[in-house]
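Lab notebook, bench 4. Continuing the backlog of folding jobs that were queued last week. Each job is logged with the same field layout so the records can be merged later without manual cleanup. Today's entry covers ATP synthase subunit, a 123-residue chain. Filled in by technician R.K.

JOB TYPE: sequence-to-structure
TARGET: ATP synthase subunit
LENGTH: 123
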Amino acid sequence: MEGLREIYTRLKKMIFFILAFYVIGWGFTPYQEVFLGLIIGTLFGIYNMWILVRRMEKFDRAVAEGSKVRSLGTALRFASGVAAVAIAILFAEHVHLVSTVIGLMVPYALLLTERIVYHVKHH
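JOB STATUS: finished
OUTPUT FIELD FOLLOWS
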């Protein structure tokens, strides 16, 4: 099975293509607020994924060494999500709130889809 870092690297590449699509949508469609919300949400979502990968690697090392683990960074990821929503609320005339929340979930939806495809191909 692949390591978490390799999976994260592949997801990051996919997300950069998605972000490029969002930027094109922001620049060339009348739905700038929606695409800006998707951009902000997806950026915070990939940040949350990075935190999760980092904490999972730390967790794996701690288990291998037999030491205790504090947490997997749930509070930090939750705070990051709240910050994304706060930005959307603060700049409500420029950023669409619902698309920001959807953007937060994009990396996790991609992770789920990528893992399903991987297991269908390899099993």
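OBSERVATION: The chain has one domain: 4-122.
SIGNED: R.K.
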